[in-house]
Amino acid sequence: MDELASLSLTHVQFDPKDKLAYLLAYITLSPLAILVLYASIIISRREIAGITMLVGQLVNEGINFILKEYLQIARPHAHLGNGYGMPSSHAQFIWFFAIYGSLYLSKNIKVDHVIEKRIILVAMFFLAIVVCYSRIYLGYHNLLQVIAGGCVGSIFGLLWYKLLNYGLYSLGWIQSILNHPLSKRYYLKDMRMIDNVAKWEYQQWEQQVRKQA
Fold first, then answer.
1. Contact, 106 vs 164, CB < 8 A?
2. Who contacts 160 (Cβ-Cβ below 8 Å, separation ≥6)?
3. What is the pLDDT of residue 106?
4. Could you tell me which residues come within 8 angstroms of residue 128 by beta carbon, excluding any fewer than 6 positions away?
5. Rounded distance, CA 65 to CA 89, Å?
6. pTM of the entire structure?
7. CB 138 within 8 A of CB 28
8. Could you tell me where the DSSP H helices lie in 7-82?
């Protein structure tokens, strides 16, 4: 086998002569990019929805760690890294993101044109599929490990959405968090009651511009 190259940031190994492997090596880093996206949204938007989704994502990672330590099933190629391979953490991560994100987008976000939602939904599931494929193609997991990770992430994404929306929100726990002085100090808010957030914010911006003019 030819010597494998490694992306220095995360040590994703791939065959440098394989152009598809080169592309997939970057696509497989999507979870890292998504975590950066979480942090950016939470800091800039200060919405409780971003925080609860990130918490769910981290709990999902904890479940993956527990399952791997319990099952102790090795990766298909030991030379690609330490740790167990069942279930795939990347697959579990990205499918939690796709399932929870699609449910929240469908139920809580309103836009002027439905096609906008559909494009985002297709993109999320397409990314999930490609990330899973990258884990198999690059040799980090076999098909069964990826399917297992995808199933666990999907199921937990659905359960987390139901827990929040039919549990914590309904019981008023989220509102209690928002009413806490610390939440008020950092301007945490829940924008779900706004019919179309993008339109509403644009109208607020227009009003402010008129006042300054």
1. no
2. 56, 59, 60, 96, 100
3. 87
4. 94, 95, 97, 98, 150
5. 8
6. 0.86
7. yes
8. 19-27, 30-45, 48-71
Distance CA 112, CA 199 (A): 8
- Please, what is the angle between helix 114-137 and helix 143-163, to 10°? 140
DSSP-assigned beta bridge partners for residue 74: 84
Distance CA 83, CA 71 (A): 12
pLDDT above 70 covers a percentage of the chain that reads 92
- The residue type of 20 is L
Q: Whole-angstrom Cα distance, residue 55 to residue 199?
A: 28
Tell the residue number behind the tokens 């919405």, with chain if given: 47
Q: How many residues does the chain have?
A: 213
Q: What is the block-wise mean pLDDT of the chain (213 residues), using blocks of 10 residues?
A: 50 74 84 89 88 93 92 78 82 95 88 86 94 88 93 96 86 86 88 82 86 80
The tokens describing 73, both together, are: 């099933």
DSSP per-residue codes, 174-197:
HHHHHHSHHHHHTT-B--TTSS-H
